[in-house]
């Protein structure tokens, strides 16, 4: 099953659905059922595959069109931990030897965007800036994931946005 989060046109509420393999049809799982509206809530509900298939049989199928905006598969993860240099072609592109241990790096959860994300107005949504002290273990940086808590943050946000 291809699970998606999406918005309907003129509606800000996140919805959960399943898209057909060819991407032309969508079934809203969160409509008229006890299924959560977002992926994180859905995962915590722990439905079995047979329960989901039963709900899909009774659900309305719609054509994918401009009335739907796909969101990232999960919009509110606690952490996004990635592994770098994890395939040979990438190592060759970077003129690096394949690592003997995984190389971790992180992404921020607020940087997630759906497949149709628009970056042209990104700075319109910046409220302000804060100052933080990075106390990363430099000898482990780029080789291992950071430790918690290693980012002391000031208690104020400066509204200096553009």
Entry summary:
This protein has 162 residues and is α+β, with helices and mostly antiparallel strands. It has three helices and seven strands.
What best-fitting shape do the alpha-carbon axes yield?
globular
User: What's the total helix number?
Assistant: 3
H-E string: EEEHHEEEHE
DSSP strand count? 7
Instruction: Report, as a whole number of angstroms, the end-to-end distance.
Output: 43 Å
Largest sheet: 5 strands, antiparallel
Mean pLDDT: 78
- Overall structural class, as computed from helix and strand content, comes to alpha+beta
Unreliable segments (pLDDT under 50, ≥5 consecutive)? Answer: 155-159
Q: What percent of residues are in strands?
A: 15-25%
Helix-residue proportion: 10-25%
State Rg: 20 Å
Q: What order do the strands of the largest sheet run in, or round the barrel if closed?
A: 4-3-2-1-5
What does this protein look like?
- This is Fumarylacetoacetate hydrolase domain-containing protein 2.
- Belongs to the FAH family.
- Residues 79-117, 120-145 form the Fumarylacetoacetase-like C-terminal domain.
- Keywords: Hydrolase, Metal-binding.
- With 162 residues, the chain is an alpha+beta fold.
- Among the domains are: 2-70, no CATH class; 80-119, no CATH class.
- It is 14% helix and 20% strand.
- It is built from 3 helices and 7 strands.
- It has helices at 39-45, 49-57, 88-93; strands at residues 2-8, 15-19, 25-28, 61-63, 68-70, 80-84, 103-107.
- The strands form 2 sheets. Strands 4-3-2-1-5 form a 5-stranded antiparallel beta sheet, with no helix packed on it. A two-stranded antiparallel ribbon has the order 6-7.
- A hairpin with a 5-residue loop joins strand 2 and strand 3 (25-28).
